[in-house]
Amino acid sequence: MKAGANMEIAGKAVCVFLLLAIIKLRRSEGINRVSANLGHNTVMTCPTRTNISMVTWKINPKTGHQCTLAYRIDKDSTGKTNCSDRINWRSRPDWDQALEIQQVGKADEGNYTCEVVNADGNFHRLYHLTVIVAPRMALYCDDYGNPVCEAETEKSAAEISWVPESNSTPRADSHDNGTVTVVSWFAARSTNGKNPTCIVSHATLNETKSINCSSYSVTEANLLILFLHIPHRMTQWRWNPILLTCRRKM
């Protein structure tokens, strides 16, 4: 009985020792939550260690396949699997193991893990990337002097209204990056001398802007359109002075 008890204690001690050894060899930090603006670049770094033998980036996006970047010091070789051209080492991996994502998109959201290996074990740094779509509003005059209001937001689409009330119906366009652009043209018979005001309503954006398009100047494109329409708009009395001038010169 005593020998059996001793064997059980010894077995538990071995298990505890192995568990501690595994924990020592596979050291991980907590998850670092990072965010990046849509269309901008972002950088994530690895644990700082000396005498590194291998570095591996494992990327698990919310959608799509896992992407892997790896570098082996002894062979001075790199490997890349299922990674976009926008995702790569920031510089030379033999002295800078940071990962850089260029022109971040919504599809890049997910978990990123850097694993560094040396004689002391495997060391990990974990990231969770969130892509932020900054809402945008624009109000301008089109080529015909009509006020136009645009709002770009994450889904769902923003709501656009006008003061005075406009009779136009907004147009919504969805994009691959997860955003929606809503465009509305101001169409009202009268503004009662007031500048049209665009009102944008969304969970991430509530903004109001006014514009005055009355001082609209004709562009070269509109001058060409006007020139092409003159012959169709001319009446007989407009042609007469031209004919008279020609006869006088003759």
Descriptive keywords:
250 residues; alpha+beta; 6-stranded mixed beta sheet; 4-stranded antiparallel beta sheet; 3 helices; 21% helix; rod-shaped; disordered C terminus
Order of helices and strands: HEEEEEEEEEEEEEEEEHH
Compute the average pLDDT.
Answer: 79
Biggest sheet layout:
6 strands, mixed
Estimate the helix proportion, in percent: 10-25%
Q: What's the overall geometry?
A: rod-shaped
Count up the helices.
Answer: 3
Number of DSSP E strands: 16
Work out the radius of gyration: 33 Å
Low-confidence segments: 12-26, 218-250
**N- to C-terminal distance:** 137 Å
Strand content: 35-45%
Structural features, described:
The protein is α+β, with helices and mostly antiparallel strands and 250 residues long. 21% of the residues lie in helices and 41% in strands. The protein has 3 helices and 16 strands. The strands form 4 sheets. The chain has a 6-stranded mixed beta sheet with strand order 1-9-8-3-4-5. It has a 4-stranded antiparallel beta sheet with strand order 10-11-14-13, with no helix packed on it. The longest helix has 24 residues, at 2-25. It is rod-shaped, with a radius of gyration of 33 Å. Residues 12-26 and 218-250 have low confidence and may be disordered.
